[in-house]
Amino acid sequence: MSALPAKPGLRHSVSEWYSNNHQLSETAQHERHVSNVIRQEGRSLRNETNCQTTWDERDTSRRLRDRTWDVARCKEALEACAQKVDQEMEALTLTKEQTEQALAATAVPLEVSSECLTLRDGRRGYELVVDPVDEQLKREVELIEKVQQVLQQHIDKSFEQLCVLQEARHQLTADLQNKMDALDIDMSCLSLTIKSPQISLKTNPTRIPSGSSTPQEWIQFSQYNMANAQEAMQVSYQMREEMSLTRAQLQNELDTQRRAAEFALRKRNHHEEQARDELEWQIKNTEDEMAEMESDIQGLDADLQAKTASLKLAHTRLENRTNRPGMDLCRDEVQHGLVNEIHQLEATNTALKQKLSEAQHSLQKMKLHHSRMLQDLNRKQEALSLEQRSMNTRARLTSPSCTDKIPVLLVPLTNSSGRSNLQLLYTRFR
Asked: Judging by beta carbons within 10 Å of its beta carbon (0-12, 13-18, 19+), is residue 154 exposed, middle or buried?
């Protein structure tokens, strides 16, 4: 069985055929016109976007260069400020060491003054007096202790100020390190091009990072760090001036008091030497007088013995004449003469005995006083020896070893990064 022919399609008229051809032509012309417009607009857009992109890249590069210039200027200011802080720290450390040396130098004067007071306490008797030397030495000890207290306070304050400077230096170093990191990043961004292999699309690159600051906050932060460092340096400078002035004033006071104590000691030593010489002269004269007194006592005793013999003779004669017999027992001139002689001899003996007793008593008093003078002379000799030892002890204050200045050994300071200069980590970014 053969297949049936296909059913013919819908038949169109000739007018419809012309209309369809005309519509196709018009549609083609319209689409070509639209395509031409789109092409022209695309070319214009490409030119505009290419120019805009080029100018944007150049403007961004210019801004990066300006930013790197700003960061570099700020970095240089931070470096200069940090160098000044280092210099001020070195100067303050040197002043602090000089003050510590001045404090250590007061140990010898205090030891000498205390030793002099202890030596002079060894005086005995009436030589143990509260004289101007004691007053000057005690005043010197009080002054030295006051000087030590003042110097120690300055040392403590300078140490605290060094800590403040160190903290300011640490802030400057941290800010300077951030500036160098930012400068390195901006310079690396400036070196990138569209042909650089490091470029790629990032996720949400236009986000604002947390902790971002404004340009005003950025410059104010560095200005605050430098202002804080400047203030700390100004305080440190005033402290160094005050420490130097205080050391000079205290040294003048110590020198003045030392001279006053030494003058009082020399004056006292001179007075004691005069008293010793006077006492030695009195002892010598007393010894001479004692020798003469002993000689006179011997003479008085010899005269008394001689008068006793004469009295015995008169007694014997008068007694023997009582044996005359009868009328020859006469109270004649001989009798009266012997009686008068006996009375005279008895009065003479009494006077001699009294004078001998007075002489012996005077000699005994002179011997006792001589012994006292010898004892006092011994104490004066001891006191003079102690004064001389005190003067020899104080000679340590003016010895060359004490007056020569000790050279100051400068120890290089290290900043918060452990470096002694400002060569931080910038070299590794270049």
From this structure: buried
Spatial contact of 295 and 359, defined as CB atoms under 8 Å apart? no
Average pLDDT, the chain: 86
Contact 138, 117 (CB under 8 A): yes
* Calpha distance 429→188 (Å, rounded): 10
Q: Which residues contact 281 (CB under 8 A, 6 or more apart)?
A: none
Listing DSSP states for 232-261 in one string gives HHHHHHHHHHHHHHHHHHHHHHHHHHHHHH
Arithmetic mean of pLDDT, 347-363: 90
**pTM (2 d.p.):** 0.71
Q: Say yes or no to pLDDT of 430 above 50.
A: no
Least confidently predicted of 70-74, 140-144, 351-355: 351-355
| Selection from 339, 137, 367, 176 nearest residue 258 by Cα | 137
Best CA proximity match to 90, nearest among 37, 38, 158, 180: 158
Give me the long-range contacts of 101-106 (CB less than 8 A, separation at least 24).
101/406, 101/408, 102/151, 102/247, 102/250, 102/251, 103/148, 103/151, 103/152, 103/155, 105/402, 106/144, 106/147, 106/148, 106/151, 106/254
Residue 415 pLDDT:
37
Tokens 């160190």, located at residue? 166
Does residue 85 sit in helix, strand or coil? helix
**What is the per-residue pLDDT across 272-319, written as a single tens digit (0 to 9) for each?**
899 999 999 999 999 999 999 999 999 988 988 888 888 888 888 888
- Specify the higher pLDDT residue, 130 or 226: 226
C-alpha neighbours within 13 Å on the C-beta side of residue 85? 33
Assigned CATH topology for domain 26-192+216-270: Butyryl-CoA Dehydrogenase, subunit A; domain 3 (1.20.140)
* Separation CA 378–CA 388 (nearest Å): 15
